[in-house]
Amino acid sequence: MQWGLKNRLSRIFNPETGRTVMLAVDHGYFLGPTRKLEDPRATISPLLPYADALMVTRGVLRNCVDPEGAIPTVLRVSGGASIIGPSLAAEGLTTSVEDAIRLNVSAITMSIFVGTEHERETLLNLAKLVDEGERYGLPVLAVTAVGKKLEKRDARFLSLCCRIAAEIGAHYVKTYYCEDFEKVVDSCPVPLVIAGGPQLDTFKDTLQLAHDAIAKGARGVDMGRNIWQSDHPVAALRAVRGVVQENMKVNEAFELYESLSKG
Ligand code: R5P
Fold first, then answer.
1. pLDDT bracket for residue 147 (50, 70, 90)
2. In this structure, is residue 236 part of a structural domain?
3. Which residues line ligand 1 (CB under 6 A)?
4. Which residues pair with 93 in a beta bridge?
5. Residue 57: pLDDT above 90?
6. Is 174 a catalytic residue?
7. For the chain, how many structural domains are there in total?
8. Would you say residue 151 has pLDDT above 90?
9. Interval 65-98: pLDDT, tens
10. Could you give the CA distance from residue 232 to residue 29 in angstroms, rounded to a whole number?
11. CA–CA separation, 60 vs 32, rounded Å?
């Protein structure tokens, strides 16, 4: 792997633990002003000290994140579909690699929609992005998107998606936690991070999800709604961080969450 590419990945994955806590705040690119992310700057600012990297679009990065801040960014460069449009899978590339470099990002990211009518174009876009990213030493994160079909999140389907993304050249992959998650990890030759998905019933469920994913080989999380839709987003992120980066047990992290929530 090129030096620049390795260097950028080491800004995202803590070299001491090999893990990352990414904060996903890119949802507006297809959801618009979704709940508790209506004012991105207000949501993001208090969380920045506790995330290893921020997953974001260029519009929110330019307008809602101070350039003086040192947080590494993973720039979403795909879009073109909306929650009210005919298909969430109809995504193309929305941001050039040159703009990503101007924004000094640490990686670029896009979604692939395996098993949909847009499978081919999203996979070919991933191939193009890997070629362009590697020209400049920019790692590519592939997201195995399921759109509204959350029931598709099983090991067989996600293994297929993750493996295809890795075969095309993605440097790491974001997917979902599922039963038999170790099968997804074992059949994917690049690191996996997990999304949180829609807010779970309790915050303890979120911690359990992060804990189980790490125990089964995930290299981190890239969570959004389960953090910033929480009543206590900073406490939530610090507790998830405890699980991912400090090997906290679920109960221990939950105690931390409760004590920070009261403070
Ligand atoms: C969705 O497509 C976005 O890429 C999000 O970054 C991703 O879903 C992770 O956020 P959440 O934990 O809210 O699912």
1. confident
2. no
3. 24, 26-27, 55, 143, 145, 195-197, 222-226
4. 78
5. yes
6. yes
7. 1
8. no
9. 999 977 999 999 999 999 999 999 999 999 999 9
10. 24
11. 12
